[in-house]
Specification:
The protein folds into 2 domains: 144 residues, Rossmann fold (3-Layer(aba) Sandwich), CATH 3.40.50.1370; 152 residues, Rossmann fold, CATH 3.40.50.1370. The chain is built from 12 helices and 9 strands. The protein has a 5-stranded parallel β-sheet with strand order 7-6-5-8-9, with helices on one face.
Length: 328
Amino acid sequence: MIDVQERPAPGPAEAPAWRHKDLLDTDVLSRADIDLVMETADAMLEVRSRPVAKVATLRGATVVTLFYEQSTRTRASFEVAAKAMGADVVNLTASGSSVVKGESLVDTVRTLEAIGADLLVMRHDRSGAPYLAAKNTKAGVINGGDGTHAHPTQALLDLFTMRRHLGALDGKKVVIVGDVLHSRVARSNVWSLLAAGANVTLCGPATLLPRTLASAGGEEGRVALTADLDRALVDADVVMALRIQKERQATGLIPSLREYINGYQVNATRLARAKPGALVMHPGPMNEGIEISPEAAHGLASVIEEQVANGVAVRMAVLYLMATARTK
């Protein structure tokens, strides 16, 4: 287990083998990368269980959160994670920055680098925006969610939660159901789950299933797409419901919320088709009574609240690995 009491001593034997300046999506992470994040998160979870749940690992580092979209879980989780390791934290929103005066994203990140930002956690409504930011700053950039593209730390905390209950995920069946087409969480989960050895079934109305993800599993066919939820749930080890974005109904992508509930709500009746004790997950925020029933959301198999708690440990791990890699 990694010692998080202090920075690792110099030397290749002790330093974490993290090789990424930025974390923009999970598609660039190898199984070794993911295992390193999981191992480090285990250590961070132990820190979180202490009476004083803090270490000075990142003392002297400056972490800036820059959010162009509203967020509760992700932003608060990163702030708690950074402060728990002694980092200085600066929180910015688009409405409270020079963006409202017309400052470009590139100018903003360069300004933040000039004032001493070491790590920049960024959420943006435009897919690809964190990639532009990363190209224009020496600070490490962590994608906190960009448009409909990616949300890597959410995928990593989901994976961490699964592994704590199921152990190794090789050959495990994970079903993700809902608006996959517009879900940055689903996309990042597909890549991390495949790297961890799991098989993924994506389920939802045909209008909300991106056919491009069917090839993500390569020739092994480890990603399946189906509009039949009852069939998809058979022998599932994990069932993850995605938030149905009600505005999709206005665009004609789903006929009505009632029909969506009838065909795709995760509930106790449907969960009976999965393996006994199959984990029930949701990245939040939930629309209880729509994509997931209250009994499923709060039942014995639900680990939804645990996902939120694990998010702090996983984000501590990511911040730690990226910050220490910058000192090498």
